[in-house]
Amino acid sequence: MVDHFHYRHQELYAEQVPVAAIADQAATPVYIYSAATFREHYRRLQQAFAECAPLICYSVKSCGNVHILRMLAELGSGFDVVSGGELYRVLQAGGPAGRVVYAGVGKTQSEILQAMEAGIACFNIESEAELEAVGALAAGRKQTVRAALRVNPDVDPRTHRHTSTGQKETKFGVDIERARQVFARYGRQPHLSLTGIHLHIGSPINSTEPYVQAVKKVLDLIAELRREGIAIETLNIGGGFGADYTTGQAPAADLYAEALIPLLRGQDLELILEPGRSISANAGIFVTRLLYLKQGGEKTFAIVDGAMNDLIRPVLYDAFHFLWPTAVSPDHVITNRCREPDLPGLRPYDVVGPICETGDCLAKDRLLPPLKPGDLLAVFTAGAYGFVMSSQYNSRPRAAEVLVDSDRFEIIRRRETYGDLIAHEIA
Ligand SMILES: Cc1ncc(COP(=O)(O)O)c(C=O)c1O
Question: Ligand 1 centroid to 267 CA: how many Å?
């Protein structure tokens, strides 16, 4: 578990700052990020794959606050975007367009033009129709753009069906057979330099094997294409590396690298990675305050001020997020974030939010230290697909975001107000 959220004197700290002090100032619910954790995950990946000197394109969709993008840009990161809005964020954060790759099945004409004007590094193309559209727009601008074809290697990533993307019949990319035809037809266009292969097989993938299978399959394809005189220069293996939702759940960056580097050695390919979750997930917690306890027939409901509009992963993906009070007795200081902690005096709770849906549950049948109203609860590993997927459902203003760096913290997105709820509806 690589992060900088630890219990010290029975109290949870984000780096050097007590989480309770942040909640007092920023109120709850609130997302709290650790700058050191972002940096550490980025560097670990960079070091693990150093032999290939990859272009690391952090996946903006996982956690895209401009302050976080700026911090990653300062480390030298590139960015993986999937919309004009994400590209706008990157540019506002000072990210270099020349290190941006752009994926997504439904890029609009204006988004494509925006990306061409910015001068992004590569379009990750998902269909023949998109190739036609990008090629025509590039020709119209007399500009040559670089593109990679997204290929589905048809491997099973063994992850949730909503986030499994690399099998044969998905809306993403094209299968290997069709990829051959696409390169034959579009591989030699004057304004479209189709010189890359892009993969993204799903997320999270907590083993190296699906990547190994996928890379082997596309290396065969690349060899074949090269024999036919089509120059393939880049291989983008996408994102999806796992993160520790429970201690020790995901392989470390080195393990992915150890499995993949031997396959890539000597291939004369520029390697691109698109990690999102493996950098951002452990870098954020979501902190919510307990409002009421309610005794059901057999269960105790802990009703908190954070809800599924703030963090939708538990209801959307049945995702497990470790959750624990920020202030605990000596018996309940926890280091191992697991599904069933073996500590004395724990009690079962359902931790639920105020939204009018039964599914609005952050943690179900969870063993926790005895709780009381006013307690702060930290939901761990909430940095990825947390705030970015939040909504105003039930007219709940979105939570604030806070970035901690050593002994300082800053509100990097203010809590929305009631005025924000109707701002786009009034003339
Ligand atoms: C094309 C592409 N690249 C990268 C990612 C990032 O995935 P992860 O956050 O699991 O690393 C995604 C996620 O959906 C994606 O669709």
Answer: 24
Q: What is the pLDDT of residues 11-49, one digit of tens each?
A: 999 999 999 999 999 999 999 999 999 999 999 999 999
> Ligand 1 site: residues with CB under 6 angstroms?
59, 62, 80, 103, 200, 203-204, 238-241, 274-278, 384
Distance between first and last Cα of the chain: 49
Q: Model-level pTM greater than 0.90? A: yes
55 - beta bridge partners?
Answer: 272
Q: Residue 166 carries which side chain, given as an amino acid letter?
A: G
Euclidean distance between CA atoms 144 and 89, whole angstroms:
24
> Is the pLDDT confidence value at 166 over 60?
no
**C-alpha span between 174 and 151 (Å, rounded):** 5
Say how many Å lie between the CA of residue 277 and the centre of ligand 1.
8
**Cβ within 8 Å of residue 300, ≥6 positions away:** 293, 294, 347, 348, 349, 350
| pLDDT level of residue 165 (50, 70, 90 thresholds) | low
Torsion sign over Cα 25, 315, 81, 244: positive
DSSP β-bridge partners for residue 352: 303, 361
Query: Is the confidence at residue 372, as pLDDT, over 70?
Result: yes
Task: Identify the CATH assignment for 35-280 out of 3.30.457.10, 3.30.930.10, 3.20.20.10, 1.20.1250.20.
Answer: 3.20.20.10
Domain ranges for the chain: 5-33+282-422, 35-280
Residue-averaged pLDDT of the chain:
96
Quickly count: other Cβ atoms within 10 Å of residue 45's Cβ: 24
- C-beta of residue 7 within 8 angstroms of C-beta of residue 249: no
Query: Per-residue pLDDT for 187 more than 90?
Result: no
Give CA–CA dist 6/90, Å, rounded.
31
Which CATH number does 5-33+282-422 carry?
2.40.37.10
